Amino acid sequence: MRSKYGVKQISVFLENRKGRLLEVTEALTEANINIR
Fold it and tell me: What is a single Pfam family found in this protein's UniProt entry (predicted)?
């Protein structure tokens, strides 16, 4: 289901840890969120 309000920007704060960015991008992908 698509919301009638589009999000134009989000901020993500991550730990400086190996693999953390991959974990977050995979979670966004699973939620069908396009980050391009």
Answer: ACT
From CA 4, how far away is CA 20, in angstroms rounded?
A: 31
How many C-beta neighbours within 10 Å does residue 24 have? 13
Rounded Cα distance between 16 and 36, Å, is 22
Q: How far apart are CA 21 and CA 14, in angstroms?
A: 7
Residue 15's alpha-carbon distances to 3, 21, 23, 34, in angstroms, are 30, 9, 11, 22
* Residue 19 and residue 26 in contact, taking contact as beta carbons nearer than 8 Å: no
Per-residue pLDDT tens over the stretch 8-30: 888 999 999 999 999 999 999 99
